[in-house]
TrEMBL record, chains A, B, C, D, E, F:
Stored InterPro entries: Asp/Glu/hydantoin_racemase, Hydantoin_racemase-like, Iso_Racemase_Enz_sf
EC primary class: isomerase
Taxonomy of the source species: Bacteria, Pseudomonadati, Pseudomonadota, Gammaproteobacteria, Oceanospirillales
Coiled coil: none
Protein name: Hydantoin racemase
Keywords, sorted A to Z: Isomerase
Provenance organism: Gynuella sunshinyii YC6258
Family listed: Belongs to the HyuE racemase family.
Single GO MF annotation: amino-acid racemase activity
Source species, domain of life: Bacteria
Pfam families according to UniProt: Asp_Glu_race
Length: 238, 238, 238, 238, 238, 238
């Protein structure tokens, strides 16, 4: 049995990096298994990228649930900050499914009155605002800010860290934010450095989602199959 | 140049029926072209069905936009009441894209203080409530109600009309609704009979979306390509 | 049968200008008839102007409905961006009644994630914010901004266009607006120039309301007479 | 100097009754002057009645403000539970203007967690809900309920009190309301009897508005003339 | 019988100052009695200070209610702008209990479309925002601003008035506020000077709460003992 | 180092029961230490009970933080479903502080679209609704329901389980709830039986808060000391 961490985009280097970070988590007591969505866009920036990635993400989950591999899955983590395909994924399984965006937002609201989110491009801002609305955490968010650095340059651009840090400092000061959420799985490796530089909690959704998944498994809590997340009826796909 | 009406599910009989109804619209002065999404589920009930259908819907729009057919499209109508894939579709084109759900909801708010929506299954209710939230029309909706008749039985079940009518009467009375929206494309053929039976406006999103598309084309209004609906960046699909 | 476009203020030159613009609309297939409200303020800036204009507007509609002229009216458009007297007007008729403010706001939400409104004076801003609240579109509006040019100087002041354009550019940039609504009927003539200058959709409520009225007539959709918009009881006016 | 209590409808008997009740208020230390709006509807039920009444109400206030009588007015109370013309009235004067609806709603929120409103006809419910939204008190209101007794039958119908009492009991029990607001000036005379019968606070907006007006005068607090309630510009009424 | 004005902090000099100001109120016709909460923090800045002060405040009210002194109390005013312990206090008595924060916020919404609040430290801002949310007045508030002057320096710092005035001017201009609320009982003595300096209504919650308490007593309105504010059950304190 | 689970009421039997349940949690890898608040009410029902309990709760936390015992605390759990004193507690420490109410509400929103809360008395309902508002989860809650069984009868009344189960069944059916939260620490022992009986996730906040505390400790996430939860200034307690 393992927590299946699925990177909904097709970047295997990003998946490897996430794995490396999660393996170092304190108190880890469940197995982790990492998946990449071949066929998906290389990164998820906007609604259309997200819709394409959802197709491959659901295929991945369906494979775990329908085959013998099913016995290996105890929970799923969706490792894109947009929480790509989260609701649809919950229909396919009774195991807990956690998005890294929602995990970080909920955790931040336990540690601060208002948090800021620093994401990559402006086009992701409305998607995150809509998620905040749906999760109910809009009033706890002091602002969603774009660093204007595309996902795939977070690693390649040597100035990326400094630019994001500067943008975060300005955003936090103007909005009275009390904690910072890293709004992209690609920023995960910065969490400790940035916490030191900012002097306040900095949250990485990937790590948090993994730990929350452990908690829900330990608590034997499952996705409700009454109502919204009932299994889909199979009406034939022509 | 034509308005492309896309049925995001794979039921060709439903597409034919929608076509028949739309062709009888008064004052129609743009060409209409109807499409079905082969590969999609036979009907869209829930998040997962919607996510699968979105994949095929986007493929359809991409085909119109990228090929020579592009010159034929003046607007797109998404003919599922869940407004399946609406935001993603808007990223792929500068032409207007209208969902039949949003069209009906906006129109109903021009004709009544509060409207009711009568849909098929309970599992669709949260999806429509979330759309209402996103469009801003939650306070204008007196309630979203499920008739508990699956999409594909709307045609086959001879009692379907009477059951939906009875459910609508009860819902309208208890919620003080002043107009009724038919919450599924498969109910389109009932619009005039039900208006007579209920004595209040009954709205069918398909017809309304087609007429609103005509309006936007006549007004030369296009989808904004600044911000949320910018064209997606092509980062390679591995 | 004609769509009756009523300018609720007493400026006949503004009415003439609106008529000129609407007559050039593509695909127009219903007759239009334009009315000015003699007795009303020369322009509508604030609650009290609006309340006075409503009195004369309702008189106008009552005249159409109660006399033989009634047969000529198929819908009403209220051509003030404040949607002056809109709810009261809907009580007097079963025909569709559309405000130009609401028409533009609903249309903008079909074309962009968030739109800006550029109006005349600061005192109109709370009125439009309240309308947005009532229509439910507050979250879709990136901001209501005042150009500080009074209605009647929009025509007379040769710098008016440039001032409004500059104010719009600043507002859009700061608020991440993706479309611009012209927040006064007196700005209608600028719609095409400003669209070109801004490179995004610019919406004029008058044209949109006329086209939406055509749609509702074609769809045979009427104002609900159940509930809020029932005809008023005549209890004698002492 | 007197508080001017304006009944916006044309029923002089209702005005007389309100006067009689207000004259018995404890601790009254400002003069009261009562006005009826000849020309207005005999009662205000719906948007259109309200719009007509506003015209005559504003004329009344303008007369006080513009003539020598002005020296007599220290505050205005608008004695219709719909708060007819409230915002427009505030533009015409720097003296406090209080609606009886808002007075009762604010007071009830000081005495209970959630209050119910019992009004006359269903058509008034959306108007009061909109006012609650505008005042911000929607979440403090457990429900707005209609007794289905028209304003002018409150006096003439001998069973009116019992019917309203029964309706109130049911409404309070189902909605967990902790106080009751009488949602029509015509119910004012029932306040003490109903408080006894219900065993919880029952609020009459007329009396409360008069006492709040006294408070604001004593505190030398005036209507802000900066922003929304600036005096209207006179642009000529053609 | 007297209105009991309780300063929930332990500063007797602040209590004396509040008494001096309230005694000069126009039209005062009920006795006033002032209390200080020995044991409380010297000023209330933040949640923890508020929680400690609530303990002593409730003891004070319990003393009035349980002993012969009870006959002296006709209403209670809680003289801290955070409305410290307000809900708990309402459980202990059937007499009206008014917080100075809520009194000022409700009054400001009767005089302006949107008001600003100028408080002391940034740490109080979220507390006041939460109160606004609870009272429902968030949309009527143009902003809560911190002057960054601690409560106890308001008297001792000779530049305090000028610093608060400057901060208020900036805040009002940027937020289009139409009235100013003094967000700390310690600013009460500035109300008239600041009204003159700003040219708009400036509101001091202490005075307003006292006058509103007079109104509620005159109206014989009591705290509802049905539901939320029922007397606490005594289950023994081990 | 231990997670300090504080029962804010004075019932040692309830504390013992909580301890017994938490010790059986799967995957527990941090020490737990349980505290009871002598001096507090025997159970917390209403605002006033909560205010009294907060006083003793804060004393407890202050003792851990200020003495040598401090080294033992790695996080705090507040084991009352009202989340008594939560915000104040966060000011006193940089360690995570989790309320059992918020823990359950956040977890339920990861497992269901809408959840119900079943609490004890009606008087607790508004307190929980206010918490939901503050946490942002109001829209995710299908309803807060009272079983009308006081806290201290949950153990002593042999029919308590059946009565709560019946009330839960009715509430879930009418509100379309998809998961049930046990709205009182005293119901903790029922969690597994009720999950079996209801066939959907049933959540007990105590267990969840303990597991989430483990997660936050493992993630090295602390309460933000920037802004709202800064340490209180000590201004002397007279």
């Amino acid at each position: 049995m393992a927590i299946i961490v699925i990177n909904p985009n097709s970047s295997t280097s990003m998946t490897r990096q996430l794995e490396q970070e999660c393996r170092q988590l304190d108190g880890l007591h469940h197995e982790l298994c990492f998946e990449t969505c071949n066929g998906s866009p290389g990164s998820i920036e906007g609604h259309s990228d997200g819709a394409m990635a959802t197709f491959y993400l659901l295929e991945k989950i369906r494979a775990y649930e329908n085959s013998r591999e099913s016995s290996h899955a105890s929970a799923y983590v969706i490792a894109c900050f947009d929480d790509t395909g989260l609701e649809a994924a919950r229909e396919l399984t009774s195991r807990p499914v956690i998005g890294i965006g929602e995990a970080a937002m909920h955790a931040a609201s336990l540690l601060s009155h208002r948090f800021c989110i620093m994401t990559t491009l402006q086009r992701s801002v409305p998607i995150l605002q809509r998620n905040l609305d749906h999760y109910g955490l809009t009033n706890r968010c002091a602002g969603v800010f774009a660093s204007n650095i595309p996902v795939l340059q977070l690693e390649s651009n040597p100035d990326a860290y400094d630019q994001v840090l500067t943008a975060a400092r300005t955003a936090l000061q103007h909005s009275h934010g009390e904690a910072l959420i890293l709004g992209c799985a690609g920023m995960s490796q910065w969490v400790h450095a940035m916490e030191q530089d900012l002097g306040m909690p900095v949250l990485d959704g990937v790590r948090i989602a993994v730990k929350f998944a452990e908690s829900l498994i330990d608590l034997k809590l499952m996705t409700s199959k009454v109502g919204s997340y009932r299994y889909p009826e199979f009406k034939g796909y022509d």
